[in-house]
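Hi all, long-time lurker, first post. I run a small reading group and we've been trying to get comfortable going from sequence to structure in the token notation. Rather than ask abstract questions, I figured I'd post a concrete chain and ask someone more experienced to write out its structure so we can walk through it together at our next meeting. Sequence below, copied exactly:
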Amino acid sequence: MDEALGSDWDFNEEIYSVLANSNPGSDNYNASSAGTVQHERLQQSLEDNNQTHDTLSEMLIQTRESALYLSVMGNATTGEAPKKFVDVFFRDSNDVVISEIWAPELKEEREDKMRRRADTVAAHSTAG
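-- Answer (accepted) --
Happy to help. Here is the structure in token form:
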């Protein structure tokens, strides 16, 4: 998102802590918390580096990434994912093999649900 904050390739606990601390009092992440985190991260990036660019393409990638983890690590219908699964996925991602948890026969249904989830995340990411 912002090169001044570090590598996009390596896990960054400081950046992830924004998500990890979202939705207090709940054992789940959801589209609202994911969108709020995106909004907070953008605000922080703008404060740290006023040259930050958040294009439509970048926002689309961010919302689809959020929809992906909410759908794959949780319930694709409700868009809620248990924090313990999401945390393991991001913090220990080298140990997770995506092909083992991806069901190709549900592709159309999954894509439709992910599009809807991404729309919800996007709606919350621009909320003030």
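A couple of things your group might point at:
The first strand starts at residue 28 and ends at 29.
Strands lie at 28-29, 81-82.
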